[in-house]
Structures are given as structure tokens and as C-alpha cells.
Design brief:
By secondary structure, the protein is α/β, with parallel strands linked by helices. It is built from 10 helices and 7 strands. It has a 7-stranded mixed sheet with strand order 3-2-1-4-5-7-6, with helices on both faces. The structure holds S-adenosylmethionine. Keywords: Methyltransferase, Transferase.
Length: 238
């Protein structure tokens, strides 16, 4: 099997999981209007999730989840080793879903944090519909805040773009990071994280890639390919 075949299979298997959640992802008039508005503005957006959590999920949930799976390909053979995983700004569960699928680990304890109760209730519904192994807990939290333990891995997609002050503040960055952290975000945000990484952290990997959207998801994702920017960070041992 060629590298491209393996990559295609990797995404096709995940497409089956996403289709199990299609009732949460299927486009609505509101989600189509939101996507059109965002695409016409071409800027980093901060959404009002109290009004648009459902439309946000239908417009961007599947695409974000596919991007997160692409970013996770650097952990493909080790994903099951991260037992305590925390998803910062988990929203409706895009990164949580991709991680749980890849890890396929009944011992996984995945903890999603978000300020929006609307987003969290969608994340709970999504994980329940997906039926993936592991324990999942989604909790309302205004971040940055104490998490109470050091996760093996912190994952985060499109949260830093809404909380850029955390990038510039070493204490807040330290508070949010687990032993390792994998971040998916806009290119500009990943550049900023890489350039201002506080002492005590180092870059394990940094990727930019394209995801070819599986044709079975074409109706929901409404694009053929998407760009992904990610950075994998570790704590430096003393
Ligand atoms: C762009 S969405 C991304 C959601 C999800 N990670 C994804 O990739 O689809 C950003 C999420 O961060 C959450 N968020 C933003 N600022 C926050 C804060 N200060 N504390 C907790 N959650 C926050 C929002 O409620 C929203 O769900």
C-alpha cells in the first residue's frame, strides 16, 4: 500500500465516525449563512457561541475535526500512551473526537473545558453518538484557570486565537500546558506561539499540511481540501 493509500484510509475510517454524528453536523440555513459570512470576511473570527454554537458546529465542526486528525498524525503510533488528555476550548468536541478515534483506548480519560455551555452540551452529544472507547467529561471553565492536575497531553484547536494574551504571558502559558501540548490554529497564531515559547518549553514538531476532504463528507464540509497548521510542544526536563 502506498503512503497516499494509507493516508486515504486513515481519513476514510474517521469519516465513518463523523457520519455517525451527522445529525449534529448536517448543514442548516444558519450554518451556511455563517460560513459564507466568515469566508467573505477572511479574518480571524471570535464567535458568539451563546447564539451560534449549533451553526458553528454545522459550519466548521467536521472540517476542524479532520484538521485535528491531520495534526495528530505525528502521534499516530503513540496516541494510546496519553491517558490523561485535556482539550482546552473544546467547543463542540472537534479535537476530542479526533483524539479519541486515533487513541482507541478504553483507559483514555479525556477532559474537555470550555466557557460555553451550549458548546459543551454539543460536545457531550457528539461523543455519545460517536461511541468511542474512553471516559469523557466536559466541564464549563473560564480559561486560563487552574486545571488541578498535569495532563499527559493538552490539545487545543482555535482556542489560542481567541485568547492571544496567553501566548504572551509565560505564567498563563505554563498554567494551560500539560506535559506535552498539541495546538492547531491559524498560521499566524502558530508562528506567534513558536516565536514566543517561554523558557521551560521546546518545540517537538511543527507542521503545515493539507487535508483532502473525504468525498462522503463533501455535503457537510463544502470544500475539497483544507490547510492545517499545528505545533507540538514539550516541557524541557530540568
Ligand atoms: C473557535 S472555537 C473552537 C472550538 C473547537 N476547539 C474546534 O476546533 O471546533 C473556540 C472555543 O473556545 C471557547 N473559549 C474561548 N475563550 C474561552 C475562555 N476564555 N475560556 C474557555 N473557553 C473559551 C469558545 O467558547 C469556543 O467554544
Amino acid at each position: 500500500m502506498t503512503g497516499t493509500d494509507v493516508q486515504t484510509r486513515y481519513f476514510e475510517e474517521f469519516a465513518d465516525v463523523l457520519l455517525r454524528c451527522n445529525h449534529l453536523y448536517h448543514p442548516s440555513n444558519d450554518s451556511i449563512a455563517l460560513r459564507n459570512a466568515v469566508e467573505s470576511r477572511r479574518q480571524i473570527e471570535i464567535f458568539d457561541y451563546s447564539r451560534s454554537a449549533d451553526a458553528f458546529t454545522r459550519a466548521f465542526g467536521m472540517r476542524n475535526s479532520l484538521k485535528c486528525l491531520q495534526a495528530l498524525s505525528c502521534l499516530e503510533v503513540t496516541a494510546h500512551k496519553y491517558t490523561r488528555v485535556c482539550d482546552l476550548g473544546c467547543g463542540s468536541g472537534a479535537f476530542s473526537l479526533a483524539f479519541a478515534h486515533l487513541a482507541d483506548n478504553p483507559e483514555l480519560e479525556l477532559h474537555g473545558l470550555d466557557i460555553s455551555e451550549h458548546q459543551l452540551s454539543l460536545a457531550r452529544e457528539l461523543m455519545s453518538a460517536a461511541g468511542l472507547p474512553g471516559r469523557f467529561q466536559f466541564e464549563q471553565r473560564n480559561l486560563p484557570a487552574q486545571i488541578g492536575y498535569l495532563p499527559d497531553l493538552t490539545i487545543s484547536s482555535y482556542w489560542f486565537c481567541e485568547n492571544e494574551r496567553v501566548i504572551a504571558d509565560p505564567l498563563l502559558f505554563d498554567l494551560m500546558a500539560g506535559r506535552e501540548m498539541l495546538i492547531v490554529d491559524y498560521e499566524k497564531i502558530i508562528d506567534r506561539i513558536a516565536a514566543s515559547l517561554p523558557k521551560g518549553f521546546h518545540i517537538l514538531a511543527r507542521h503545515s499540511a493539507h487535508v483532502e476532504i473525504p468525498p462522503v463528507l463533501a455535503d457537510s464540509v463544502a470544500q475539497e481540501r483544507a490547510s492545517v497548521y499545528s505545533i507540538h510542544i514539550g516541557r524541557t526536563k530540568d
